[in-house]
Design brief:
The structure holds two protein chains of two kinds. Among the domains of chain A are: 92 residues, Immunoglobulin-like (Sandwich), CATH 2.60.40; 85 residues, Thrombin, subunit H; 207 residues, Immunoglobulin-like. Helix content of chain A is 13%, strand content 37%. Chain A is built from ten helices and 49 strands. Chain A starts with 6 loop residues before the first helix and ends in a 35-residue tail after the last strand. The N and C termini of chain B lie far apart (45 Å). Chain B is mainly alpha-helical. Chains A and B meet through helix 2, strand 1 and helix 3 of A and helix 2, helix 3, strand 1, helix 5 and helix 6 of B. Strand 1 of chain A pairs antiparallel with strand 1 of chain B, so a sheet runs across the interface.
Chain lengths: 728, 181
């Protein structure tokens, strides 16, 4: 066949009919797919932004020295030496610092905590005034600046907190300069999304105690620890026994509840590692990798290995690292899994054996052992630990603790501390002054106790942990705290599961949260259940929630759906959901749903949260506002259109109505007029109306939910709110 | 690899900020390939973003094996699409992507066989994943066997076998493939 003849196919498809089919396949033209030029441009911008963050990759010095350009310039160097003597002060500028780069531990992060500054790091000492003047932030926000050191700028929202559920873009303009006057060649933008605000409390609740009380039980001092190298204690599979390295490097075991330690190996042990099954423990002793079977204390010399820097089990496979490579045990003896370059130290091997942490000088990276590739851990100053499945990791930064995946991509920012990741996906953070629990995304932080809790290490049960205090090994137990579940929390859990199913494009799952009316609302002629289109549905959050009826129990939610292109939020719309349940033992189901029109983002201040109570209302914006525009720009109307509640007060992005007497079940409307203006001079783009119903007063409900609640919203415990401070 | 492309690649390896030129050169080709597999615009945008971000990150470690740079991008793309397929099946009709007319004046006599073309590509889509990918890269992307081998992480011989088996399997369904009169 002559058409599009491909000689490569001649020896593959010798049969005439096969060749004819190949000719047909090859002759089919490809239609041009729909392509959004804005996407193409946005992706290029995103790539270039990342590329600038990566900076110039310089070859090792010995390669540069051996290269032809280096030889060619060797003679010229003699002359340059003369000039160099005049400008010798420039020798303080090390290699690789000629390109000014900008990074942030918050870049591309989600669920960023509200009470923290925005950290911007440069790779060179900066001119403070010029750099501060180059900072732009959206949404419009009053900020103040401080410098943690000559290269790290902290941008503080003047109101004390970041706005909740908001995508921030912090741009460092090209007028930023180093101390030597070198400008930033291109603007650098840091983008991140903040976490939700603490849950509003529409109903009376027991007053939390103001005095911190220990949440821990059963603290036991187990044994004294030697000074010098510390190796993480190892837990038995049933969480009853702790194995640790004691005096003279003895391997010892002790009951987690206390008692006399038992010596398993008399001396010289380092890098102990126990299997997940808890039947064997490996360690390094006398230049050998040994494995002890705990049932009979028999030992096997597995390999000779000098300079071991990490040792870990991946199932039944033992892996260890030396200066020359990562090795694994095998049926035919040890084998090298991957080589390690000179100057690189393997700090830790993941529990699944797929990844390891490499350190080269001050830089840390996470390496894929199978692919022999690695990704840098941005801003890492120390490695802290793995999740139990090895898929995520924790490391210390200059400002706290970062959680990341094995690509090095950030998944959360946490406070500083010694860290341990539990089987229940809770991170324990210990320090000289306190111990707390927190989710890996930085949410749900709970102070467990004050005092010294260094080097915490969770037991497999996820509730007991070992720690170090005053040169001794201790254990303690963190009880699983049963959250008090209100009807509103239970309804919110349904909304969250419903929205999560939609985000995951799980139509069948989403439909299970709808009653017959709800299914009608999301039928083909109604609202779209799955949001598809060029702009992706990427996140949602609850703008307002209230209980609106007692019998049957009715709750009303306004949920915002945010649509994005690439990493940037571009538009949003609100859905109003009414949930009903006939009996407390039954789950809430979505009975009614409606939606407003889509709004483009980045076009003026936005309402991000409305808290409604019978006597007050709080409206939170994403931007700092011109206070003079608020008084007549944010109003509350009753069903007859008559204004109620008088004038609002304004501070820190928040408008508050007090002295209200909202009638339960009555209709009201919150109106935000276009007169409201942010501090950058932009008005609300279009009038924002929010229909609401006077909330019912409910008694305290402490009955547990009749079905699982997946922690849908932040902990009901109050979080400290910043004291208002005047805008600058 | 052509000399001009080799120079672009070397520059981007030394300085990731030079990656833009490679992006400009290969975006359309990779996006079109991804779209042909996922057949949904937002999904194609997601996967294309993932491919180029991965490529940028891995650029300093890229090894020139003499094959076109695009073969390496296709390798990342094949893996990214495979990941996507684990959770999402393409829903859009093949007709929306494959222009079922045929190219070139010499093929005018085949223009009447749109149904046959449609059925062939429908059958390609039903082939085992490896055979399907080999056929798509060969016949739709017009790649050389050696480059397909790079993209799929296989030997050239294995790719030839996949193509032979794939086309043979198409022939087996003779009824479905018989030209419509």
């Amino acid at each position: 066949m002559s058409m599009n003849h491909d000689p490569e196919l001649d020896d593959i498809l010798q049969d005439e009919e096969l060749a004819r089919l190949a000719g047909l396949l090859k002759a089919t033209r490809r239609a041009e797919p729909p392509l959004d030029d804005a996407f193409r441009s946005a992706l290029r911008r995103q790539l270039m932004q990342r590329a600038w963050g990566m900076g110039e990759v310089r070859a090792p010095w010995w390669q540069r020295l051996a290269g032809p350009p280096a030889l060619a310039w060797a003679g010229a160097a003699l002359g340059i030496l003369l000039i160099g003597s005049v400008v010798v002060f420039t020798a303080n500028q090390g290699p690789g610092t000629n390109v000014l780069t900008v990074t942030s531990p918050m870049a591309d992060a989600h669920a960023v905590q509200l009470q923290q500054p925005i950290l911007v790091s440069f790779n060179q000492p900066m001119n403070h005034a010029a750099t501060e003047a180059a900072v732009q932030i959206t949404p419009a926000t009053y900020v103040t600046f401080s410098w943690q050191d000559s290269k790290t700028l902290a941008v503080h929202p003047s109101g004390g907190t970041l706005a909740p559920n908001t995508q921030y873009q912090v741009t460092i303009g090209p007028s930023a300069k180093t101390l030597t006057g070198q400008p930033l060649t291109r603007p650098a933008t840091i983008t991140f999304v903040t976490r939700p605000a603490p849950t509003p409390q529409p109903s009376p609740r027991p007053t939390p105690t103001a005095t911190p009380v220990s949440q821990l039980t059963g603290e036991h001092r187990l044994a004294a620890l030697p000074s010098g190298a510390f190796y993480a204690p190892q837990w038995s599979a049933d969480s009853s026994t702790v194995y640790f390295v004691g005096d003279n490097g003895a391997l010892e075991s002790v009951s987690a509840a206390g008692g006399d330690p038992k010596t398993l190996v008399p001396d010289g042990v380092s890098y102990p590692a126990i299997t997940v099954a808890g039947d064997r423990i490996a360690y390094v002793r006398g230049g050998n990798v040994e494995v002890m079977t705990l049932a009979d204390s028999s030992t096997v010399d597995l390999a000779t290995a000098s300079g071991v820097s990490a040792l870990s089990w991946a199932g039944n496979q033992l892996l260890w690292a030396t200066a020359s490579g990562v090795f694994e045990s095998g049926a035919n003896g040890p084998g090298q899994l991957t080589p390690v370059a000179q100057g690189v130290t393997v700090v830790s091997i993941a529990p699944d054996g797929a990844h390891a942490i490499f350190q080269s000088g001050p830089a840390f990276s996470v390496a894929d052992l199978a692919a022999n590739t690695s990704q840098p851990l941005a801003g890492a100053s120390a490695f802290l630990g793995w999740s139990p499945d090895g898929s995520r990791l924790l490391y210390a930064t200059a400002t706290g603790t970062a959680a990341a995946d094995t690509q090095g991509s950030p998944i959360g920012t946490l406070p500083a501390g010694d860290a341990s990741w539990s089987s229940k996906d809770v991170v324990l953070l210990g320090s000289d002054t306190s111990v707390s629990e927190i989710h890996p995304d930085g949410s749900g932080g709970t102070l467990l106790n004050t005092g010294t809790y260094r080097q915490p290490a969770w037991a497999p049960n996820g509730s007991t942990f070992a720690f170090v205090r005053a040169a001794s090994l201790w254990t303690a137990t963190s009880p699983v705290l049963a959250p008090e579940v209100s009807p509103l929390d239970q309804a919110a859990a349904v909304v969250t599961q419903f929205m999560n199913a939609r985000l995951a494009l799980q139509q069948d799952v989403a439909t299970t949260f709808l009653d017959d009316n709800g299914k009608q609302a999301y039928s083909s002629s109604g609202l779209p259940l799955l949001v598809n289109g060029a702009a992706r549905f990427t996140r949602d959050y609850i703008v307002m929630q209230e209980l609106t009826g007692q019998n049957p129990r009715t709750a009303r939610f306004v949920v915002r759906l945010v649509l994005s292109r690439g990493p940037l939020d571009v538009s949003e719309y609100d859905e109003t959901l009414t949930l009903v349940r006939a009996q407390p033992s039954q789950p809430f189901l979505i009975d009614q749903a409606s939606a407003d029109s889509t709004r483009l983002l980045d076009r003026g201040p936005e309402v991000v949260s409305v808290d409604v109570a019978a006597g007050s209302m709080k409206i939170v914006f994403d931007s700092d506002l011109v206070s003079d525009t608020v008084a007549n720009g944010v109003i509350l109307l009753d069903k007859n259109g008559k204004q109620v509640g008088g004038q609002a007060t304004y501070a820190n992005r928040t408008v508050v109505f007090t002295g209200l007497a909202l009638t339960p079940g009555a209709d009201y409307k919150l109106v935000v007029l276009t007169a409201v203006q942010d501090v950058n001079g932009r008005n609300v783009h279009g009038e924002y109306d929010l229909n609401l119903i006077g909330p019912v007063v409910v008694d305290v409900i402490a009955t547990p939910a009749p079905y699982p609640i997946p922690s849908p919203i932040p902990s009901p415990s109050p979080s400290p709110s910043p004291s208002p401070s005047p805008s600058t | 690899m052509r000399d001009d492309e080799r120079a672009l690649v070397e520059r981007a390896k030394r300085d990731p900020r030079q990656f833009g030129a490679l992006y400009d050169r290969h975006f359309q080709q990779i996006y079109r390939f991804v779209y042909s597999r996922v057949r949904e615009q937002s999904a194609a945008e997601d996967v294309t973003s993932e491919i180029f971000i991965k490529a940028l990150k891995a650029m300093p470690r890229y090894q020139d094996t003499g094959r076109p740079f695009a073969a390496w991008l296709y390798q990342i793309a094949v893996n990214a699409i495979a990941d996507r397929y684990r959770t999402l099946r393409p829903a859009q009709s093949l007709d929306d992507f494959h222009d079922l007319s045929v190219a070139g004046p010499a093929l005018e006599d085949l223009a009447a066989h749109r149904d046959e073309l449609r059925r062939i590509w429908t059958l390609v889509d039903q082939l085992p994943a490896q055979q399907k990918m080999a056929l798509v890269l060969k016949f739709q992307e017009d790649m050389k066997i050696e480059d397909i081998a790079v993209a799929m992480g296989k030997s050239a011989g294995a790719v030839k076998l996949l193509i032979h088996r794939g086309v043979s399997r198409l022939r087996e369904d003779a009824d479905a493939l018989r030209p419509v009169e």
